[in-house]
Recover the amino acids of this structure.
């Protein structure tokens, strides 16, 4: 039975657009930290606030969609367009399509903004030419990096199939999220020179067990989607590894202002969920991702590693990060303080 709703116009924006909005806000918050007045306060508020708002809207859209159409009949390719058509609102599907196109455009534009900031930071360590890190005096933005990334994004979007791009984006995003959660655990439980060898070894062991059980669970799901024995083995192993990490390895450092709560449970769950989702992506996408990753690793080992090492040596010789990041040949003076990130952007 299809339940009609009295005021559906407030839900005409498609789910894909909210996905675009959510990813756009998160991307902006992460990559534009240098351009905020108080990153330690503004970034967490922006991230948490955006996630709460978009999650609430996701729930409203899901409820509305299920009220319009039985969930068994939901079209996974165009859920809202088909749902509106099924209730006789054929004109509404055009609004949905327009919103979806707007969402895709927003993702591309915001992606350019984030990628340009990534390229700027990479070039500051001389892994890319310093020309990319030049900041416009008037706008305070990396114009060169933005122009290059805009052209590159447009070319890739024009000549590449959407399903290939979406799968590569999914792999890279999930893989990065998994690495961030893993790095959070390492940072919280390990400090070089302070953590004992025994605690370090326990940390490594528990992390390897957690990763191994998560990979095994994703593999089992891919090979046997109707079985359950594998989950009865891998889930308890992951649970025991997380418990062991929480009770047998002491914290090496604690956050001063903002910190991830429920450590190690939340990061460990993030690792498990992201690896499980990675297991749902097709083989060809992993081959493409592996090829690009291999190419970038070769570039980093033969060029980027040496460039960043030379940059660190220049800093040790007293030039300071300001001149190094701006690609200047000036000499650092002890009487002049090193510019902060905000000052460098404003300059």
């Amino acid at each position: 039975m299809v339940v009609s709703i009295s005021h559906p116009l407030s839900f005409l924006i498609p789910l894909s657009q909210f996905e675009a909005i959510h990813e756009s806000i998160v991307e902006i918050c992460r990559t534009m930290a240098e351009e905020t007045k108080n990153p330690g306060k503004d970034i967490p508020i922006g991230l948490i606030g955006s996630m709460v708002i978009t999650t609430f809207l996701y729930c409203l859209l899901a409820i509305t969609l299920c009220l319009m159409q039985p969930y068994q009949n939901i079209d996974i390719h165009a859920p809202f367009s088909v749902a509106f058509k099924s209730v006789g609102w054929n004109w509404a599907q055009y609004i949905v399509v327009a919103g979806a196109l707007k969402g895709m455009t927003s993702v591309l534009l915001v992606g350019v903004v984030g990628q340009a900031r990534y390229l700027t930071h990479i070039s500051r360590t001389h892994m890319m030419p310093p020309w990319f890190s030049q900041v416009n005096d008037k706008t305070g933005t990396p114009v060169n990096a933005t122009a290059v990334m805009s052209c590159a994004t447009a070319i890739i979007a024009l000549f590449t199939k959407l399903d290939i791009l979406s799968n590569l984006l999914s792999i890279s995003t999930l893989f990065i999220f998994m690495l961030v959660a893993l790095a959070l655990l390492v940072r919280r439980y390990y400090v070089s020179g302070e953590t004992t060898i025994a605690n370090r070894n326990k940390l490594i062991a528990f992390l390897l067990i957690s990763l191994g059980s998560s990979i095994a669970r994703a593999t089992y799901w891919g090979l046997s989607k109707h079985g359950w024995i594998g989950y009865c083995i891998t889930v308890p192993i992951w649970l025991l590894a997380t418990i062991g990490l929480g009770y047998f390895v002491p914290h090496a450092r604690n956050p001063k202002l903002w910190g991830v709560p429920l450590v190690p449970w939340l990061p460990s769950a993030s690792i498990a969920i992201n690896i499980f989702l990675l297991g749902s992506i097709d083989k060809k996408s992993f081959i493409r991702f592996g090829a690009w990753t291999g190419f970038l690793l070769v570039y980093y080992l033969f060029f980027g590693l040496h460039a960043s090492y030379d940059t660190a040596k220049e800093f040790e010789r007293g030039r300071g990060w300001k001149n190094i990041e701006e690609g200047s040949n000036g000499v650092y003076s002890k009487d002049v303080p090193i510019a902060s990130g905000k000052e460098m952007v404003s300059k």
In short: Residues 221 and 228 are 9 Å apart (CA to CA).
